[in-house]
Structures are given as C-alpha cells and as structure tokens.
Design brief:
Helices cover about 70% and strands about 0% of the residues. It has about 300 residues and is an all-alpha fold. It folds into 2 domains: about 5-30 and about 195-290, Orthogonal Bundle (N-utilizing Substance Protein B Homolog, Chain A), CATH 1.10.940; about 40-175, no CATH class. The radius of gyration is 29 Å and the shape is rod-shaped. About 30% of the residues are buried. Mean pLDDT is about 80; it is low at about 290-295.
Length: about 300
C-alpha cells in the first residue's frame, strides 16, 4: 500500500513540474508527468515480475535436448517424393523454446547482477513475444495430421516430449498479465500492481481537489507573505505550500500540526536550506488565520 508520504511527495513533484503561470487543469493529471512520478513503483513491478517469471519458468527447457534429437530425426527423413508437410512447426517450436531458454538465462543473470528495470522490462517483453510464438507453433503442430508412418511416429514422440510445455507457457502469460491471477507465486506482482493503481488514484484525487481551489490557495499563500514578493517564492516551496494549505483548509481528517510537520519534512527533502523555516512560518500564519476549515472536497 502507498504511504501518505509517497502520495504527498508525488503531489509536490507534480505541482513543481507544472507551469506556475498557468492554471492547474484536471485534464493535465493524465499527462506523462504523472507517469514519471510512478516510475519508482513501476521499477518495483518490473523486478517483481522478473523474479516471478524466473521462478515459474524453472525447468522449462528440460525437454530441449531430447527435442533436438527429434529435429535431427525429421531432417533425416526422405520426404522428397511426398506432398506431406514436414512439420515445419516442429522447427518453429524448437527455435522459439531455444530463444526462451537463452533469454531466461539472461534474465537470471540480470537479477543476480544490476537488476536494471529497463533491461528487465526489455527481457520480459521479448519473453512474452517468444512465448506467443511458441504457443502458436505448438497449436499448429498439434493440428498437423499425416498418413506417413515416420511423420506420425515423430509427431507422437514430440507431443510426449512437450506435455508440460503448455503449463509453463500459461504461467509466463499469467506473470505478465496486468491483472495477475491469485497464484501464491504472484503475490508480490499483485501487490506492486495495486500500489501503482492506488498511488495514481490518490495523487489524481488530491491534485484534482487542489486544482479546483488553486487561485484561492495562491491568494492565501501570497497574503501570508511578509516582506516577500510572491514572484520570489521558490517553485518547490510554493508546491509544498499549495499542498499543505489545501490540507489545512479542506482535509479535517489530517490534523493541522501533522500537515505542517510533514510539509516541513518535504521542505527539508526537496527545498533549500531556508525552506523549512520559510514554509513553517507561512503555514503557521495560514493556520492562525483560518477560523474554520472549509467542507472537505
């Protein structure tokens, strides 16, 4: 679950990135900026999915050595006088599974090494495409019929070798599904998906509420300045003040001291040396001037 700190940091980063000379429009909340704020959670999802895939695909390549012999048997058959298909899907399936094995090895090395999220995502995307290629070849292979005894025997042997393959293919698809099923091995993947959805919802909700009252909030912040022009307020400080002022006026479920303390912590994390004292002073004046909070939005 996303913490309130994560939500508030995301809101502040979005407010900082917004053009201060332009109104904050709710339509902008689905911009690439919000996706960028979700990047740390997406990286966590990539890692969870990669670990799940590596775990669920253990043992997938066990049949490849025997299947290679089957491909060689097919190559030795004399089919020159026959119109029968030489089961090209046998080759397609073998090629796809060979590439899957190679990329699973690369994935495991990445998990044991840098755990680079972009690299993991690229590998997962490639594995999904190869998995689809393998499943398509397998379907064609099972649909193939032949009257030639040699091909019939070869087909029967190949089916026996790949009995467990559909289960592995299905598990890989499940691990990469946007709505992963309730498998114990995918618990961390589901949790990572839920964290992204929750943070997006909470941040969008908070930003929408701030956008509705932005001009009022800015007027309140500006009127609370002492010996300080509004255009001199640092963009980070203004973003923090907008969020905290909104909480003081419209979020009675958050105690005023908590909003101010957390705003000061955000100022320490993102602002200048003077930001914590500056933010504290402005918010203290706003709290004293607010006779009662407005209705919660």
């Amino acid at each position: 679950m996303s913490s309130r700190r994560q939500i508030r940091e995301a809101v502040v980063q979005f407010l900082y990135a917004a053009d201060p000379s332009q109104p904050l429009l709710p339509d902008a909340l689905e911009s690439p900026a919000l996706d960028l704020l979700l990047e740390p959670l997406r990286d966590r999802l990539s890692l969870a999915r990669a670990k799940a895939v590596a775990h669920l695909q253990q043992g997938r390549s066990r049949f490849l050595a025997s299947y290679r012999d089957l491909v060689l048997r097919l190559a030795r058959l004399d089919l020159s006088d026959s119109d029968e298909s030489a089961l090209p899907s046998v080759h397609d399936l073998f090629d796809a599974e060979t590439e899957i094995e190679e990329n699973l090895d690369i994935l495991q090395r990445e998990l044991n090494g840098n755990k680079n999220p972009n690299r993991l995502e690229d590998l997962l995307t490639k594995l999904r495409l190869l998995n689809q290629k393998s499943r398509a070849a397998s379907a064609r292979f099972h649909d193939t019929r032949t009257d030639l005894p040699a091909l019939s025997t070869l087909r029967k042997d190949a089916i026996a070798l790949t009995t467990d393959l559909p289960r592995y293919a299905e598990r890989l698809e499940q691990a990469l599904d946007p709505a992963p099923p309730l498998l114990p091995e995918l618990a961390k993947v589901r949790k990572a998906h839920a964290a992204i959805a929750e943070l997006r919802t909470e941040v969008s909700s908070r930003l929408t509420a701030i956008a509705k009252n932005l001009s009022t909030l800015d007027e309140l912040i500006n009127s609370s300045l002492e010996n300080y022009r509004p255009d001199r307020v640092d963009r980070v400080d203004r973003a923090i003040l907008r969020l905290a002022a909104h909480e003081l006026l419209h979020c009675p479920d958050i105690p005023a001291p908590v909003s101010i303390d957390e705003a000061i912590e955000l100022a320490r994390a993102f602002g200048t040396t003077d930001s914590p004292r500056f933010v504290n002073g402005i918010l203290d004046r706003i709290r004293q001037g607010a006779s009662q909070p407005s209705d919660n939005l």
